[in-house]
Design a protein that fits this description.
Layout lengths: L1 H6 L8 H6 L1 H36 L5 H36 L7 H24 L1 H8 L5 H53 L3 H25 L2 H20 L3 H10 L10 H12 L1
InterPro entries: Rho-like_N, Rho_N_sf
Organism: Mesomycoplasma neurolyticum
Keywords: Membrane, Transmembrane, Transmembrane helix
Length: 283
């Protein structure tokens, strides 16, 4: 079958159960390192944000509107993403250990922390390189001490974020292995189902088309099989049914029907005569 040809090589892949057997020796260290990195990264990031907010608030030289906009941007944009990513990571990590399958690791959290580990931090590093005078002045600890400590933590955060990028990539690769294993298990199950059932699609469609072709033939044969005698019998049965229905009616009801049918002299006709005339007119 065509499905067998497509999926025969799927048996070469490792199953989810075999992959999970590698968890203590091969995968656990990366999962623990990622969780620690995310926790430390979040602590440093939150501390950096607090110092940044305090530094902006203490900068009296900056306009009030600019300071408030910077604080609002920091609080209402990055904090929700950070909190949601933390929640998503640890929730899905727990689910992965319950189901013994790392395909349930949060892809959104992985993407978010990978992004802020490299993309955002490299961008900020470029900005700092452009404003080297501000950078070195902050590290001198002469003017704004809070801002100086903010810069120190920011440097640590940048270095730490780039290093954790490789941890996130390793965990992403682990998740990918489990996704491939799970998909191949489902494909193999489907393949085995096809083997056991062995559906004959050609005969299936031939049977459908043959039934459709035979339907008009059967209808014509039924019409041909009807003899004149059967037609006469059917008419007699219909007349008998009509007569039985009319015979159940009272004389007044029969005269009312005759009146509706505009039968002249219906008032002088007997009951049997009315029934015969009504039957003739209805035919």
């Amino acid at each position: 079958m065509i499905f067998n040809n497509l999926f025969n090589n799927q048996k070469d892949f490792e199953t989810v159960l075999k992959l999970w057997e590698k968890e203590p020796k091969k995968f656990r260290i990366w999962i623990i390192m990622q969780s620690i990195a995310i926790a430390l990264y979040s602590i440093i990031y939150i501390t950096t944000f607090i110092l940044l907010i305090v530094s902006i608030a203490m900068n009296k030289n900056a306009p009030e509107e600019n300071r408030l906009s910077n604080i609002n941007f920091t609080i209402f944009f990055f904090f929700p993403l950070l909190v949601l990513s933390l929640y998503s990571h640890f929730k899905n990590l727990r689910l992965s250990y319950i189901k013994r399958n790392f395909m349930y690791l949060s892809g959104a959290a992985l993407s978010f922390f990978s992004f802020i580990s490299v993309g955002f931090l490299i961008f900020q590093a470029i900005v700092l390189m452009v404003h080297r005078d501000v950078f070195f002045a902050a590290l001198s600890f002469q003017n704004n001490i809070v801002f100086s400590w903010f810069m120190v933590l920011y440097i640590i955060l940048t270095i730490f974020g780039i290093s954790t990028f490789f941890i996130h990539q390793a965990v992403r690769n682990i998740k990918k292995q489990f996704i491939i294993a799970d998909q191949n298990e489902k494909i193999n199950q489907f393949n085995e189902l096809l083997k056991t059932q062995k559906p004959d699609f050609e005969n299936f469609f031939e049977n459908i088309f043959s039934e459709q072709k035979n339907q008009p033939k059967n209808q014509t044969n039924d019409k041909k099989n009807k003899s004149p005698e059967s037609g006469i019998n059917e008419e007699r049965e219909k007349e008998t049914l009509k007569y039985q229905k009319l015979n159940k009616l009272t004389l007044e009801q029969l005269r009312k029907i005759a009146k509706d049918l505009e039968i002249s002299g219906y008032q002088t006709l007997t009951r049997d005569e009315l029934i015969k005339i009504i039957l003739k007119i209805s035919d």
